[in-house]
Amino acid sequence: MAPVDLRRSFDGLAEQVRQHLHNDSLSGHIFVFRNKRGDRVKLLHWGEDGYVIVYRAINVTLKDLTTKIWIVIFRHVTRAANP
After folding, report:
1. CA-CA distance, 72 to 59, in Å (whole number)?
2. 44-70: b or e for each residue (b if 16 or more CB lie within 10 Å)?
3. Does some domain include residue 33?
4. Is residue 3 in a domain?
5. What's the structural domain count of the chain?
6. Domain extent at residue 30
7. How far is CA 19 from CA 2, 13, 22, 44, in A?
8. Among 32, 36, 38, 44, which Cα is nearest to 62's?
9. How far apart are CA 13 and CA 71, in angstroms?
10. Would residue 4 count as lying in a domain?
């Protein structure tokens, strides 16, 4: 995962998805961005009414971060499937 300038908002992160990942930011996928130090992450997701950004400052190792991201994604998908 390459670092991203987390000062970017919805449009800037969506542009990163289009340019660097060659993907559609409106696809419903959850895109994860981290800063250079790896202590902050943003998740970008297209919800029913528009973009959703989750921003988190963390104090864990990259391995722990990966585990936590998967937990957040699982909870989000589970809630979406069982409203």
Report:
1. 16
2. bbbeeeeeeeeeeeeeeeeeebeeebe
3. yes
4. no
5. 1
6. 10-81
7. 13, 10, 6, 15
8. 38
9. 22
10. no
